[in-house]
Amino acid sequence: MTEYAPAALWHLYILRTAAGQLYTGITTDVPRRLTQHQNGRGAKALRGKGPLMLVFHCGIGDRSAALKVEYRVKQLSRGQKERLVGDQPQDLMAYMAQIVRVPA
User: Looking at the domain assignment, is residue 1 inside a domain?
Assistant: First the structure.
């Protein structure tokens, strides 16, 4: 009989660059991914952006759910992302359901 390891919990995270830009990503290991970004081995968009600060992270569930939430967060305006970081919601899914997108 084969035993299966439980599926990894995926997390959404938001980093702030030295210039104040926000970067959103997903991973199964937030500390590892932050270290990769800080060492220039993560996303090209963050290379050379100075020190990075983890400003938000939360568990989402499986990879599919994490990808969907990541897409939704990336669609938010900067102000909405700043509010998300400031609010630090415990339940991101419920929080996102309350956000009404205003056309640009």
Answer: no
